[in-house]
């Protein structure tokens, strides 16, 4: 049974999910833009996807960060980083889950995020504003981009998401799980890492696989 178990484990490592913009297999990209650059040695995203991830009104999902006024840059960079991780990382295999929506067959569920990544995200976004807890659904799309649904009001993140865990877990319907684990523990996924030190998420995926 052991080789079969090893093969099952390997199938969760170094793969791209079946979703809207992902490549079928991970591989090197000459140039990835901006915050997606750490993944360029081995990426599930194309250079064009990495560029679009940084635009305020990107064709990736027509999603508007500024739905409750302009999102501050220090907050927006976390959402860009989150997009880069989602689109580019080949290390999310253990958390890929089947889904059946018009735009993707697979999603990520309960990815264990390192505590610092989650807390910094919350810290930098607490004074930004939003009108919704779950950004995956329930928007008004009549204009072709997401607008706050009728009857909702814009409030600061710190009231919508009272804790870092609330933000990380709820904003993308439990794609992430808040953990008390720290960066460098080898047990949690880092949204932010220095590619010069290598990609720490490879070992994390192997551990959970």
TrEMBL record:
**Residue ranges annotated for the Folate receptor-like domain, each copy included:** 15-190
- Pfam families per the UniProt record, alphabetical: Folate_rec
Q: Which GO terms label this protein's molecular function in UniProt?
A: signaling receptor activity
Q: Which UniProt keywords apply?
A: Disulfide bond, Signal
Q: What is the lineage of its organism?
A: Eukaryota, Metazoa, Chordata, Craniata, Vertebrata
Single GO cellular component term: external side of plasma membrane
Q: Where does the UniProt annotation place the signal sequence?
A: none
What family name appears in the similarity comment? Answer: Belongs to the folate receptor family.
- Entry protein name: FOLR3 protein
């Amino acid at each position: 049974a052991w080789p079969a178990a090893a093969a099952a484990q390997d199938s969760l490592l170094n793969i791209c999910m079946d979703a809207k913009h992902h490549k079928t297999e991970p591989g090197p990209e000459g140039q990835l833009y901006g915050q997606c650059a750490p993944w360029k040695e081995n990426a599930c995203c194309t250079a064009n996807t990495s560029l679009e991830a940084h635009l305020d009104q990107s064709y990736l999902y027509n999603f508007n960060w500024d739905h409750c006024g302009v999102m501050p840059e220090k907050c927006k960079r976390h959402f860009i980083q989150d997009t880069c991780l989602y689109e580019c990382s080949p290390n999310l295999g253990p958390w890929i889950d089947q889904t059946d929506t018009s735009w993707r067959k697979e999603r990520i569920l309960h990815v264990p995020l390192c505590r610092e990544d989650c807390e910094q995200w919350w810290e930098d976004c607490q004074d930004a504003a939003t009108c919704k807890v779950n950004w995956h659904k329930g928007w008004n799309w009549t204009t072709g981009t997401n607008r706050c649904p009728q009857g909702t009001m814009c409030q600061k993140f710190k009231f919508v998401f009272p804790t870092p865990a609330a933000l990380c877990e709820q904003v993308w319907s439990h794609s992430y799980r808040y953990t008390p684990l720290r960066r460098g523990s080898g047990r949690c996924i880092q949204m932010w890492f220095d590619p010069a030190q290598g990609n720490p998420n490879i070992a994390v995926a192997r551990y959970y696989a």
